[in-house]
Structures are given as structure tokens and as C-alpha cells.
């Protein structure tokens, strides 16, 4: 009995000194099998180290994923900055519009017939381009011709004038715009091209507007005056005419007291009026 107890004690001491449990072969040879350890049991120290490595890998993966995402606070700041910039642009445009002075309140709407609508021929407009976006002078003169009271008559006048100018000197109609008795503005050379009058000054700084008709002894129709006001306001709105523009009349040098007298008696009362320029007959 003493011998058996010593054998069991020796076996226990051997198991305590060994970090790995006996295997089945040891049992078959007469040894003892450690039921507490088993074949697959690891040491506690190695198990803790493996868990720590897995935790570190998981945290590193989370940090990598987070680095590709925009933080909610940063996203909110970016949206707020864009909103503030948009509000600033809107306020700036509004203040800019307030600084654009209009010569008068305009109740008459602006009607424009562009050149392609009345000149549908192969000869395209060829005219020198203004080197300024907004010109400073407007010259108004009458065409010293019959008036037109509807669009058909006004279009016919423009077509006949274009043909006459092209036949006489291979040039286009000299006006930038014409205003008919129907209260409509007709585009001739437009806002971007120089006028074609050799005897008028400021070809590169002036828009020439013709009032269709003879207005030496009689006034233009009220609707023509209203359309002229609408044209000036529209030109400012399009940044094609300076807000502090100068308004002029053009008179025939051989009869300065008569040419367009009725028209200019009215225009001299308008804002921005600066006087007459002379032209040759």
C-alpha cells in the first residue's frame, strides 16, 4: 500500500512538472491520462497572447475603415460653409442690381424683333465689333421717312433699307436699332456691333437708334417714346449701356433748327440729355 501511494504521488508530481498532458500512448503503456487538461488544452499564457493579437488586428481594421469616412461634424461644417457662400453670392448679386440706376420706372414692356426674323437672306451681317461691353452714348434720330404702324410695314421698311444700303455701298443697314410706330424695337446691327454712319461720332462708343418716321413737325406716337424708354432700360439691364449714359440728338447741319425738331423738343426733357451732334445731309 505504501508502494502504491508513492507511485501515485510520483505520477502527480510528473504531471505538475510537465506543461503538456500525457497522450493516449502514455495511457496505453500504463501511465495516467490527465482528464483536466485533455489533448487540445493550451497554456493560459499562449491563449491570452492570441486573443490580444486578434483584438489589435480588429482595432486596426476599424481605424482603417473610419479613416475613409467623413466625420459627421466635418460634413456638417462643410454643408454650412457652402450655404453661407451661396447666401453671400445671392446678397452680392442683389446689391449689384440695386446699384444699377434706371432712368425711370418702365411700365411699357420691351419688345424686340431680332435681325434673323426680318432678314432671311444669305448675306450675313458683317460689321466691326465694339471693343467695349457697355457703351456710354446713345444717339437718337428720326429716319426722315414714312412711318410704319404695324409689324408688316416696319419689317418692309427694314428690308428695303437693307437692300438700298447693300446696293449703294455694299454695306448693311447703319442703325443699331430702329423703333417703329407699332411700339416694337427692331434689331439692325445690335448691341455688339459698331454703327454704320460715317458722319456720326463715336462709332466704337455709341449706339444709334432710329425712330421710324419724319418727326420734324409732328411728335412720334406715345408708344414709340415708351418703347425707347424700355430699350434704354433693357440695354442697361443687359450691361450693354452704362447706367450714366449720355443721350444725344443728331441734326442735319444745313437745317439745324428744323431737322427732327418735334422729336427733340421732347427728348431734351429726358434724363441724361447732353445735346446735339451734327451730321451731313
UniProtKB/TrEMBL annotation:
**Entry's InterPro entries?**
Amidase/PGRP_sf (IPR036505), Amidase_domain (IPR002502), PGRP (IPR015510), PGRP_domain_met/bac (IPR006619)
What transmembrane ranges does the database entry give? 73-97
Q: Which residues form the Peptidoglycan recognition protein family domain?
A: 110-252
Molecular-function annotations in GO:
N-acetylmuramoyl-L-alanine amidase activity; zinc ion binding
Pfam families named in the record: Amidase_2 (PF01510)
* Database matches in Gene3D superfamilies: Peptidoglycan recognition protein-like (3.40.80.10)
Keyword check for Ubl conjugation: no
Entry annotated with the keyword Acetylation? no
Per UniProt, which keywords does this protein have? Answer: Immunity, Innate immunity, Membrane, Transmembrane, Transmembrane helix
What the entry lists under SUPFAM superfamilies is as follows: N-acetylmuramoyl-L-alanine amidase-like
Name a biological process GO annotation. peptidoglycan catabolic process
PANTHER family given in the database record: PEPTIDOGLYCAN RECOGNITION PROTEIN (PTHR11022), PEPTIDOGLYCAN-RECOGNITION PROTEIN LD (PTHR11022:SF73)
- In which family does this protein belong, per the annotation? Belongs to the N-acetylmuramoyl-L-alanine amidase 2 family.
Tell me what this protein is called: Peptidoglycan recognition protein family domain-containing protein
Amino acid at each position: 500500500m505504501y508502494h502504491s501511494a508513492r507511485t501515485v504521488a510520483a505520477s502527480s508530481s510528473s504531471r505538475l512538472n510537465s506543461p503538456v498532458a500525457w497522450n493516449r500512448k502514455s495511457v496505453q503503456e500504463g501511465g495516467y491520462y490527465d482528464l483536466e487538461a485533455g489533448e487540445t488544452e493550451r497554456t493560459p499564457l499562449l491563449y491570452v497572447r492570441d486573443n490580444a493579437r486578434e483584438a489589435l488586428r480588429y482595432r486596426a481594421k476599424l481605424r482603417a475603415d473610419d479613416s475613409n469616412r467623413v466625420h459627421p461634424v466635418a460634413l456638417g461644417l462643410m454643408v454650412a460653409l457652402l450655404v453661407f457662400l451661396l447666401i453671400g453670392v445671392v446678397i452680392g448679386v442683389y446689391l449689384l442690381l440695386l446699384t444699377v440706376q434706371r432712368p425711370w420706372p418702365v411700365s411699357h414692356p420691351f419688345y424686340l424683333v431680332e435681325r434673323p426674323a426680318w432678314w432671311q437672306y444669305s448675306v450675313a451681317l458683317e460689321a466691326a465689333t465694339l471693343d467695349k461691353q457697355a457703351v456710354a452714348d446713345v444717339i437718337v434720330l428720326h429716319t426722315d421717312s414714312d412711318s410704319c404702324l404695324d409689324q408688316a410695314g416696319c419689317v418692309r421698311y427694314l428690308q428695303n433699307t437693307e437692300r438700298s444700303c447693300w446696293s449703294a455701298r455694299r454695306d448693311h443697314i447703319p442703325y443699331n436699332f430702329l423703333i417703329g410706330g407699332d411700339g416694337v424695337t427692331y434689331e439692325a446691327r445690335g448691341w455688339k456691333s459698331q454703327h454704320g454712319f460715317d458722319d456720326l461720332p463715336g462709332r466704337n462708343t455709341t449706339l444709334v437708334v432710329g425712330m421710324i418716321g419724319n418727326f420734324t413737325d409732328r411728335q412720334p406716337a406715345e408708344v414709340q417714346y415708351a418703347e425707347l424708354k424700355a430699350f434704354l432700360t433693357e440695354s442697361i439691364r443687359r450691361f450693354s449701356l452704362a447706367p450714366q449714359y449720355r443721350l444725344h440728338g443728331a441734326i442735319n447741319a444745313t437745317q439745324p433748327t428744323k431737322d427732327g425738331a418735334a422729336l427733340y423738343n421732347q427728348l431734351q426733357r429726358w434724363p441724361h440729355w447732353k445735346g446735339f451732334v451734327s451730321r451731313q445731309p
